[in-house]
Amino acid sequence: MPETITSIEKENNALKRQIESLQKDFSKLQIMIESKESPKQDGASKETKAQMHSFQTSLDFVSNEYDTLNAFQIEAKNEFKKLNSRLTEIAMKVNDVGDALEQIQHRKEDDRPSPIICKFVRRNSKVIVTKQRRETNKVNPSVRIFDHLTPKNQQILFEAKGFKARNDYQYCSTKNSAVYLRKYANFRAIRINELHDLLRLQNSNYVPSS
Asked: Where is the FP protein C-terminal domain positioned along the sequence (predicted)?
């Protein structure tokens, strides 16, 4: 069953909450690492003074262990910074998706499903989908990709298709980034420049300028 805008918003909000929880966990981890660093240094220093003369071998062992722990703490901090940076990047992308969802108008005409607006995050994905645009005709004649149209003309095309169905027009097409309506095959195509052209077209004497 296709996902609705509401279900996508719920999933997006759930992901936001998970990211916020991870950010809190990362903050706690950073505090724990920093709080344990100083005591280890003090302990190593005291043990070094106590065994300086009589337990040189043990001191060397402790010193090596401290160096290993210190190196681990440095590496852990670096990895923490990388993970935190990545988490921030993911959170920003989630916010972008949320903003895009909020901008989609919840519109529905008759029994037809609402239009779905896709925003490609990766350019390669868009290229792959665009290359397959011809195959959509074999799957469902109502599926089209109009990435060559401006957002304004995409909206005009959506409204023009509804106008075509309501007013028994036979053709609604695009050419050179423009939208056209044709009543019958032997009639000339009418270019739709603005949304209000559709309202005026209700009057058969009106012809939008080309």
From this structure: 150-201
Q: Pick 185 or 24 by higher pLDDT.
A: 185
CA distance 191 to 177: 11
Burial 129-165 (b: 16+ CB within 10 A, else e): eeeeeeeeeeeeeeeeeeeebeeebbebbbbbbbbbe
Close Cβ partners of 64 (under 8 Å, ≥ 6 residues apart):
none
pLDDT tens sequence across 34-45:
665 554 445 555
Q: What is the pLDDT of residues 55-104, one digit of tens each?
A: 455 555 556 666 677 777 777 777 777 777 777 777 777 766 666 565 55
**Residues near 185 by beta carbon (within 8 Å), at least 6 away in sequence:** 170, 171
What's the pLDDT score for residue 168? 85
pTM higher than 0.90, yes or no?
A: no
Yes or no: say if 143 and 112 are a contact pair by the CB < 8 Å rule.
no
Would you say residue 13 has pLDDT above 60? yes
DSSP 142: T
| Burial (CB count within 10 angstroms: exposed 0-12, middle 13-18, buried 19+), residue 182 | middle
Q: Give the neighbor-by-neighbor strand order of the sheet with 178-182.
A: 171-175, 178-182, 190-192
Closest Cα partner for 172 from 149, 156, 196, 151? 156
